[in-house]
Amino acid sequence: MSDRPRVYRTEGLILRRRNLGEADSVFTVLTANGAKLDAVARGIRRARSRMRGHLEPLTRSQLLLARGRTLDVFTQAQTLHAYRGLREDLERSALAIYCAELADRFAVEQAEQPGLYPLLLAVFDTLEAGAPAQVLRWFELQILSLAGYDLQLDACALCSARLPPAETLLAASAGGLVCAGCRAAAGAGRLLGVPAIKVLRFARGASLADFASLRVGDDLGQQLEGALGDVLRYHLERDLLTSRYLAAVTRLSREAPPTASPDVE
Ligand SMILES: [Zn+2]
After folding, report:
1. Are 165 and 225 in the same domain?
2. What is the spatial distance between Cα 131 and Cα 85, in angstroms, rounded to a whole number?
3. Pairing, β 36-41 against β 72-81
4. Residue 240 Cα, ligand 1 centroid: separation in angstroms?
5. What range defines the domain where residue 211 resides?
6. Residue 163 Cα to ligand 1 middle (Å)
7. What is the CA radius of gyration of the chain?
């Protein structure tokens, strides 16, 4: 028996939707405490559904949910911020959807991650206000840090040696920049020039507004996008493998016949 209340209220950002049956949809929501949840909206694909406009992806809403046996059910939804400026602009909506997907991948069901919700709100607000696409790099660095994957950018991630101001390898598996002497041991990576390294170091401690006002040229922007993309792929694939492994182990232990328990004296 659970003593959790049957109905609960939460604020959240709608990350994505998928259709269920003929008229229902399941929405993935990042809640204000940084956990994510999946819940079903019954009949939302019918024209007369009152919740329809309040559960669009990229909307910030106040939600009332009822606990269900498998999935919780939305009983009320009220828009707090519709982010129309994002949703009605093709490029901006693509940037925001990318951020929502990253938050979805890093969030964990029923596990609070304070900081994740304000981080996503901040980047949505800034994108809606017209910030350049480079703010995604700031978001990526911050979300990596929240997840405990801070990049080592000040010294060699493997031997702690000082890094001269020169082209340096960023190796995801090593956890950051790697000195010339450690390159062979660092695994795959990407050579970054001094300007790219400076931008990463700045992004780590800068406010979103300060980072948004930094001038980043196209070449440099692409270099940073590639480098952080490598790091994100490395961590997310590793996490996925871990969760796949856990799921497989759980399935095996369920399917295995109960082992004979040893006699207890
Ligand atoms: Zn080193």
Report:
1. yes
2. 12
3. parallel
4. 29
5. 131-246
6. 8
7. 22
Q: Measure 185 CA to ligand 1 centroid, in angstroms.
A: 9
Q: Mean pLDDT across the stretch 15-28?
A: 95
Are 175 and 149 in contact by the 8 Å Cβ rule? The answer is: yes
The reply to whether 111 and 169 lie within a common domain is: no
- pLDDT above 70: percentage of residues in the chain: 88
**What would the mean pLDDT of 4-24 be, rounded to a whole number?**
93
Are 169 and 75 in the same domain? no
Same domain, 61 and 158: no
pLDDT at 238: 76
Instruction: Output the six-digit token pair for 232.
Output: 């994100």
* Residue 165 alpha carbon to ligand 1 centre in Å: 14
Domain count, the chain: 2
- Looking at the structure, tell me whether residues 59 and 141 fall in a common domain: no
Judge if 154 and 241 occupy the same domain: yes
Distance 226 CA to ligand 1 centre (A): 22
- Report the separation in Å between the CA atom of 150 and the middle of ligand 1, taken as the mean of its atom positions: 17
The residues, ordered by sequence, that sit 6+ positions from 151 with a Cβ below 8 Å of its Cβ are 141, 144, 170, 175, 176, 177, 200, 204, 231
The pLDDT value given to residue 234: 93
Residue 62: give its domain's CATH number: 2.40.50.140
pLDDT at residue 150 in the model:
94
Distance from Cα 196 to the centre of ligand 1, integer Å: 19
